[in-house]
Structures are given as C-alpha cells and as structure tokens.
Amino acid sequence: MTDVLELPSTRHEAWRWADTGGIAAAAALAPVAPAKADFLDLPGARLLFVDGVLDDAASDLHRVRIGDLTPGDHPLGRRATHGWSLHLDAGAVADPVQVVHVATGGENHLAAQIVLAADTSAQLVETFVGAGWSNRQTRIRLGHAARLMRAVRMTQDAGFVSLRDDAELGEGASYVATVLGAGDQGARVDAAITLAGAGGYAEFGGALLTRDATKQECAVRVRHAAPNGQSHQLWRAVAADTSQASLAAAVEVARHAQKTDGEQSLRGLLLQRTATVNLKPELEIFADDVKCAHGATVGELDARALFYMASRGIPAPRAKALLTRAFVADALDRIADDTVRDAFAADADAWLERAL
Amino acid sequence: MLKIENLHAEIDGKEILKGLSLEVNAGEIHAIMGPNGAGKSTLGYVLGGRPGYEVTAGSITFNGEDLLDKEPHERAAAGVFLGFQYPVEIPGVSNVQFLRESLNAQRAQRDEKPLSGAEFLKLARAQADALGLQQDMLKRPVNVGFSGGEKKRNEMVQMGIIDPAFAILDETDSGLDIDALRIVGDGINRIMRRPDKAVLLITHYQRLLDYVKPDRVHVLADGRITRSGGPELALQLEREGYAEVAA
Question: Can you give the pTM of this predicted structure?
Fold first, then answer.
C-alpha cells in the first residue's frame, strides 16, 4: 500500500512513527454522508471545503482567493496543487479566516498559501471533520513584524489527516500555531519552520489525543537561521487503549544564529499501559551563545490525586477527565482568542468523555 | 453513626490493622492517638477506601450501611470526609473548580440540584474567610505552592464547604503553628461540633485537643485499640508516653 502512495518508509528517521498504513486505509474509506460544517462565531472569511472542493454557497471568501498553487517537493505536500491563498499588503489587518474541511471518504488534497507583508496580522482557524484521508499543504511567508495566529483541530470520525507546513518568518515576525488531535482519525503533523530574519518568534505545539488503535504524530523542525530568535514547541500527548501518540520536535540553530532561545516541552500521558507514547526532542546547535531548554516525560495519571478527588466525591471517570484536561491545558492555553480556545477545550472534553 | 468491628487490613500483604473495633455516635468527637507505625493513617485510608488498602476481615457500618461496599466517591456522598495528612497537589485544576466539582458530584449522587457558580463562590468565600485562607488561593491550583499550614487550612475550607456528617481528620495539626492550630481547631468545632455529626481525630500529639475537646480518647497500638478513656487519657499519654500507657 505504501508503495502505491509513494511515501517514505518508516525506516526513514523522519517517518519513523508515521502511520503510512493508516493513510492508505483512510484513502480507501467508502463514501460517507457529509458531516455538518461547524463554523465558530467569529467574523471574517468562512471557507467550506468538501473533499478539497470549495462549497461556494456555504463560503464567504473576503480577501481569500482560490486557484492553482505551486506544489512543493514534500512527499505529502506535493499532492496538493490547488487551493486557497491569503495575501495581505503592508499594514493591512484582516478579519479571521475560518476553514472547515469536510471529508466524505476516499482521499482529498488541498494547498494553502498565506503571505503576510510587513506589519500585517492574520488569524486562521481550521477544522477537520468527516472520514477519509485529508491531506493539506500550507505555505506561510511572514514579512517584517507580521503576525499569524493559527489553530487547527482534527476531529474526524475516521480516516487520516496529514498536514505539511512550510513556514518562513522574516525579521521580528511571529507565528503561533496550536494543533489539536481530538478525533478518531490518524494524523501526521509535519512542519518545517524557518526563522529566516532576526528576532523571529515561533510557537508550534498542541495536543494529540489518541484512543482505540489510532496513531497520531507530530514531526516538527524549527530552524533558527538568524540571531535573537525565540521558539517554543510545547506538545502534550494522551494515549488510551492500544493507540500511539508520537512527538518528534527538532530545533536547529545555525552557526550565526546567536542569542537563540529555544524551548521544547514534550510530555506524554498513558491512560492505559497498552497504549504507546513516543517522544523525541532533538537539538542541533551550531552557535555557541544560545539557550535551548528541553524536557520530555511520559507518565500515568497520579493515583494519589485520583484518590484525593474520589474522597471529595468526584467519581473516577470525572476525576480522570479533570486531571487529563489539566494535563493538556498548557498546550491549548496558548490559543489567544477566547472563542477558539473554548471550542478547542470543548473538543478535548468531548474526546475525554469518549475515551474514559 | 460509625461502627467498626474486628477490622483487619493489609497493604501489600502486610497486616497493619489487626482486629480493630470502635464505635462513634452522633454528637461525639473521638481522638485516636498512638505511636508512629501503629496504623493510625491506615485506619483513615481504609475508611476512605484508598486503593491498595485491603480489608481481609471485619466490618465497617456507617449509619447502618456497609461502608466497605461503597466506592470512595460514594462514601463521600454518604457524608464521610477524609482530611489528609499530606493533602495532594493537583496542578492545572483550580481550587474553586475542584471544590465545586466535589460538592456538585456529591449533590448529584444524592439527587440534589447543583449549586450555581455564584452560589458556590459565596459559600467558598465565606469558608475561606472563616479559616483565614486568602481569597486568591481559591483560584490557584489545588494545594500547589501552598505551605504546609495553608494546605491544612485548605482541607478545613473543603470540609466547611462539603459540610459532611462524619469527618476523619488525619494529623490535621501537623505542620501548623500555634495561631494556625487555633484557627483550624475553631474551624473543626464550628463545622463539626453538632448533635448530628461526629469526628474521628487522628493525632500524634495532644496539642490539637486543647482546642478540640474530645469526648473519647483511644490508644491505637500495633493495629488495635489497646485503651480507651476520657480526655484525661490524652494528658496521661502526653505525660507518660505511649510505651507506658499503651502496653
């Protein structure tokens, strides 16, 4: 199956925990009725893609354009040749862009391009629902002091979501992205973020919640190519049943990227001992005046805390939900917008209800 | 109210309680005293239903019902409160959220309506004030960064909010300075000294008993009650030591 999809094998280090079999199975899923498109109560553009095709009647494009985009050479990303783009000229402030991706079985591919000129700011919220293989390539270019806030939630009932992001930040630009995997699909979050200008700021993190036999992973690489950059990769993985959640986060600091401040915090929580969490923090530092903090831990829910809560009257499933939610809260609290953060927290809660 | 008969309990196959019997009636405060390792905390955990504490023989009834048959959260809803010697820190869960969840979970099990956020906050603030716990500590994660004394006060705030019929207080006096001891003692009297309530005070020292006068004092040694008496027994223990009195 993997050969048919022409994806790298898991012998390739960057694809070590990739569920290529899960992608193939998702691509072969039989058609299902379209799931309801769930837009949040935010102003701005609303894009509804059903199997990667824009639903004109249900969409409101604002500044967004639809058209062909240059595919990259990434094994996942190169499949997406058509999609949406947002270009902001210097000084412009755009309303939020919401994208809902509905999959109805089979495979679908869609590209996106976000180009923000100097001193612009944009907010992007993406939601994945339905079943099938949804494959996305997102290209991000941030100019001087441009700011992009992005939140992605993967809440499909089945199948697979693969994200390939390629972001380049100019001087003083800021990119804050939070990804939540709270559905019953597999996932690969594959990202390359380059701080090309001095003083760039990147946050790329989130929470992967897996149950049954699903596999989700992030494979993120942040490259500090200029001095005074700051990056934070804060990921939480929660795995139940026989599922597998994997976090591979790399920081690369180039020789001249002095005064880099990089942080990686990877933490895993096993809800059952039959589940698997893989963590791989990776540092490649060629500069000599940098600060790179990294932590990686895997554990179980604190039995003492569970008994303490029970002794106050809280039933075990609820106590587990509260502790698990507290565990992922760090990651989701990075979302600045209240409406978006509440919606993501509710998705995490709904997942916990099902998993516990 | 609480009746323990011939209780045997073990942890990891090691027997800690070896035939303990005790009866506490409504309106009474009992103190359990004893040397380290006698099984005082084990008694508290067995009453609370902590996993790993296995009852191998005997019975515990609470208001006529088999307590051992209930899950820990059901015991709480039935009116049993366990004050911890080492209150647990819960990062990421605020005190307010924890307490509101606790109270409303108990109310739900008793088919009572949940308290609204406003009703709950009013109650929580009143209890925090009464125990000298700063209001901002209600918003902080449960017991995280609290001093030993603050944790114990927080236990009492929880007890005040939950308003249980029966409280087992395990070494509630440890880690308290004299002022805090008085505040906590006053709290126990205010919340629990009622004709329809009862308390089991587990303590190593007699000093808390200066503030909370027990009706009965028991000596727990090597897994059983070896002596029982009135408040004067506590003073005798303090004077003569456990080795003399408990033997």
Answer: 0.88
